[in-house]
Amino acid sequence: MSGTRLPPNPWLADHVIFFTSRWMLWGATLLWLLAQGVLDTTQIWALSAALLVNVLATRFAQPYVRIVRRNPTILMIDIVYGVALVLFSGGWDSAFLVYASSSLVLPALMYGWRGGMMAGLAFVSIDLAALWAAGAPPADRLLAGEVSGMTLALTMIVPPLFGALVHPLVDMARDYVAQRHTLSRRPPDRPDVRPRRSAPPDTPSLPRESSGVRSLVRDASEPSPVAQATRIRTAEHGADELRRLLFAPLSTTDVELGMAIDILASRFSQHTGIAVRVTQLGRAQQVRYAQRQLLVRLAQEALLNVQQHAHASSVSVTLRYDSSSVVLMIQDDGIGLLDGTYERPGWRTLRTMQYRLAEHDGRLDVFELDGGGVTVRASLPLD
């Protein structure tokens, strides 16, 4: 079997969007200042400081994103830096409000529209508190006519709105690129022929029991007619309910990866009636919190896709450890990829997971086997 890997577009990786957005908003701020026709010493110093920070952000973007994933509180430093730049360059009338909004991009990329909105609200809170401490309270400036009500409203509304829009816009861009990539790969004279996906050469088949291999197996019993009827109703009406069940909090935040996968498989099988087999190979290794959360999220989304798209009767989940990596593989016996690829609307989350894994030097493969069904395989290096 020949393998096909679908690499993410490097220009749409989180760390690239992080530093390119800073340069774009820095350029927009510069154009705004030039259009106003006034560029004083303070603004020149602020532009120079922002330029230096942009150079550093470009140089260290990828390691910075990795550090932030391990310790999200570091994101507050960037927000405080943006507010400080606004205060230094004029406060309420500062053109650097545009550039300061770049501090909301990374929270939105990491935590979705909710993360972007919360970062925007944090920015507004810190900004108003700093202006108040600097002797420019909003109420006094508004009553004195120094600040218009529109300016105050925009200052409070635009940052959270901008933060909430970043993630959907990036997803739209990734969808567009993925669709263009799919169309370019499709033969023009045979548009209805479905290309076959085969497993990469280094992808193992379903594991077999052998001596010296530690296995943890959970088999759901063969679904009864009642369970089959439940499965049909679930496929038609229960996607939201299954999502709530799969994404319900685990018993503790530091639950071991194998146990977390086992819990998800059990929830999925009990809710859908689909038989699930969970196998753990190798000796369990220490997995960082961010990596564990990433693999748990992938398992949740892959199982949800099985329920929504696969029409499968069984699923095999394999968690494999070796000395330098951890591999999670979810295989179903369903109808496969209808158009030969998962790069299409409705599979957006798997594409997003592809970028997330790439940020951790990991890899995501989605392919069909000759016998049918879909395999989702994720690998991450261990520190």
In short:
Helix content is 56%, strand content 10%. It is an alpha+beta fold and 383 residues long.
Strand order of the largest sheet: 1-2-3-4-6-5
> How many alpha or pi helices?
13
Q: Architecture of the largest domain in CATH?
A: 2-Layer Sandwich
How much of the residues is beta strand, in percent?
A: 5-15%
Shape from CA axes? Answer: elongated
Structure description:
Strand 3 and strand 4 form a beta hairpin. It contains 13 helices and six strands. By secondary structure, it is of the alpha+beta class. The protein has helices at 14-36, 41-59, 61-70, 75-88, 97-100, 105-133, 138-143, 149-185, 225-237, 239-246, 257-272, 289-310, 348-359; strands at 218-219, 275-281, 314-321, 325-332, 363-368, 374-381. Helix content is 56%, strand content 10%. Helix 9 (225-237) packs across helix 10 (239-246) and helix 10 (239-246) packs antiparallel against helix 12 (289-310). It has a six-stranded mixed beta sheet. The chain has two domains: 10-181, no CATH class; 194-381, 2-Layer Sandwich (Heat Shock Protein 90).
